[in-house]
Write a structure and sequence with these properties.
The complex is a heterotrimer of chains A (46), B (215) and C (292). Chain B is α/β, with parallel strands linked by helices. In chain B, 34% of the residues lie in helices and 18% in strands. A 7-stranded mixed sheet of chain B has the order 2-1-5-4-3-7-8, covered by helices on one side. The longest helix of chain B is centred in the first third of the chain and has 26 residues. In chain C, a hairpin with a 7-residue loop joins strand 3 and strand 4. In chain C, helix 3 runs parallel beside helix 8 and helix 8 packs across helix 13. The chains are: A mainly alpha (46), B alpha/beta (215), C mainly alpha (292). Strand 1 of chain A pairs parallel with strand 6 of chain B, so a sheet runs across the interface.
């Protein structure tokens, strides 16, 4: 396996772990809550 | 790759566009194009991924945003609700009728909501028993709200609206949103957005004074 | 040969339509509330856009960072890493609605500002914007002031102004009272960016976009990319010359993998996709990767 592919594997593993851990800690809910309401200042209105 | 290749490509493209359009149509469902009542567009928007529960049906006839720039709610009667208080117990809005009610909708991820909150204890101190202040947290779970309130040491009533049902009764798509209800139960003023605790303290004081003067 | 640009354009268009499938939302100024809003899309698409059916990765990142130190931004970071690893800036070239808008604006016939070493210098600015507005300010405010401040969304993002700000204020008269200096600033920024893109190809992508900056970090490892087959390459440099982005080589951090360079390569050395492997029995390792 080339060094580049080893790096890719490592990065992929880190990404998958982070994604899974994030979902487990409820990040998708947090994202959704923020996305379904409008904080006016947050998007530069008002 | 000449005409046959090109045709195939265009066909693929047309398929992609058609798929996207289908998704789009599914998203808007089959609702009428009536601008007055924007009630429950969400139910039609996502039949599979539905987040809104049944309470929408109980929603009172509250024409939300219409064409005029003035907020429709002013002069209307408020919509009553009962909610879970952070820390236990229930909160029913109508139990506080007779006082001026400051009904605030917020969330801990909303910067301006959080920044205006120091005004609330000050308002309570200023108006005492003639003011009933309640802050309804939208969509968030109890732990998140509890952590936030504890970190900041607030002790005014906080209602948890985890499923967004109470938020449905008022135009709370945009927050922070605050409603000032006069002692006779009519909505005296509404406020969208917030400019920091000091400015909002003045702003709400004015509105509360006006509502008190209405007796 | 002429089909490839068309294919890319169709994919860009499809992405834009899919990200904003909630067409009904625009007229009413009503945000979509379905569960898909917990998912991020790879390109820049404001989740305060009434049409958006999913979340913007940049907005989500800033908000997730605001939850430090209690919660680390694992989900969004993991998402960005995986997209960066698989596609990298292919997202920019194929799946970003704002990228599409910029390309269309550039088609307006005016004199154009050609790329130069100054534009190459300017391309570093987006990393600064990433560091300051997307990361540093949200983290700092959360830590010291205790409230979230998504600084890129709030002060800069023209996609948010175009898709969210303007469409919401237009559809909802009651927001006009809230509009103030911040909206004026953001509108000015948005207009400046849109006008700038007429004269300067993808000016936002090249100089300002923090999302492109993030994906560009994966340029060396991305699985899908536009690449040069070094066995065929004669180093004439026509590809770099033809390219409208500030690339030094095809497929570097500034490359958005649009593939327009493929048309001018005299050796047909440029290809799109996974790396080609060449296997020479004489070599000790057997196979190596044929890439410049």
């Amino acid at each position: 396996m080339t060094r580049k592919n080893a790096a890719r594997l490592l990065i992929a593993a880190a990404g998958v772990l982070a994604l899974a851990a994030g979902i487990l800690q409820g990040d998708m809910q947090d994202t959704m809550r923020k996305a379904v309401r409008l904080c006016l200042e947050c998007v530069g209105i008002g | 790759m000449s005409t046959s290749g090109r045709k195939r490509l265009l066909r693929i493209g047309a398929l992609i566009l058609a798929a996207a359009l289908c998704l789009g149509l599914a998203a808007c469902g089959g609702h009428e194009d009536v601008p007055e009542t924007e009630k429950t567009p969400e139910t039609e928007a996502a039949p599979e991924a539905e987040k809104e529960p049944a309470p929408e049906e109980e929603q009172e006839e509250e024409p939300e945003e219409e064409e005029e720039p003035e907020d429709d709610l002013v002069g209307q009667r408020y919509s009553d609700f009962t909610g879970q208080l952070l820390g236990g117990g229930e909160f029913t809005l109508s139990e506080h009728e007779g006082k001026v009610i400051l009904l605030n909708f917020w969330a801990s991820w909303c910067g301006p909501c959080v920044r205006e909150m120091p005004a609330f204890p000050r308002l309570i101190e200023k108006y005492g028993d003639s003011l009933a202040l309640v802050a309804v947290d939208l969509d968030e779970d109890a732990q998140t709200v509890a952590d936030f309130i504890e970190e900041n040491g607030y002790d005014f009533p906080v209602v948890l609206d985890t499923d967004g049902a109470i938020g449905q009764l008022y135009p709370t798509m945009a927050i922070p949103y605050t409603v000032i209800i006069a002692p006779d139960g009519t909505i005296a003023a509404t406020s969208l957005g917030a400019n920091g605790a000091d400015e909002m303290f003045e702003h709400y004081s004015e509105a509360i004074d006006a509502a008190l003067g209405q007796e | 040969m002429g089909d490839r640009p068309l294919k890319r354009r169709l994919i860009q268009l499809a992405s834009a339509l899919i990200y904003n499938a909630n067409m009904a939302g625009f007229g009413k100024g009503e945000l979509y509330r379905g569960a898909t809003k917990g998912l991020c899309v790879p390109g820049l698409n404001c989740y305060s856009c009434p049409g958006a059916v999913a979340a913007c990765p940049l907005g989500s990142l800033q908000n997730a960072l605001s939850r430090l130190p209690r919660k680390a931004p694992l989900y969004v970071a993991g998402f960005l890493v995986l997209v960066g690893l698989t596609l990298g800036r292919v997202v920019c070239g194929f799946a970003c609605p704002f990228g599409l808008i910029q390309e269309l604006l550039h088609k307006i016939p005016t004199p154009k500002i050609r790329k130069s070493r100054w534009t190459r210098y300017l391309s570093w600015l987006k990393y600064g914007i990433l560091a300051v507005f997307v990361v540093a300010i949200p983290v700092w405010y959360a830590w010291t002031e205790g409230y979230p401040l998504p600084a890129f969304c709030k002060y800069i993002c023209p996609a948010g102004t175009l898709e969210g700000g303007w469409s919401l204020v237009a559809a909802r008269p009651e927001y006009r009272g809230v509009v103030g200096g911040l909206f004026g600033w953001k509108s000015a920024v948005c207009i400046a960016v849109l006008v700038g893109c007429v004269f300067c190809y993808r000016a936002f992508c090249r100089f300002l976009c923090p999302l492109g900056a993030i994906y560009s970090l994966f340029a060396r490892v991305a699985l899908v990319a536009v690449r040069v087959d070094k066995r065929l390459c004669c180093e004439c440099g026509l590809c770099v010359e033809r390219c409208k982005m500030d690339v030094r080589r095809v497929g570097d951090r500034e490359c958005i993998h649009c593939g327009e360079c493929r048309a001018v390569c005299p050796k047909n050395a440029i290809y799109f996709g996974r790396e080609k492997r060449i296997c020479q029995p004489a070599e000790e390792n057997g196979c190596s990767v044929s890439e410049r």
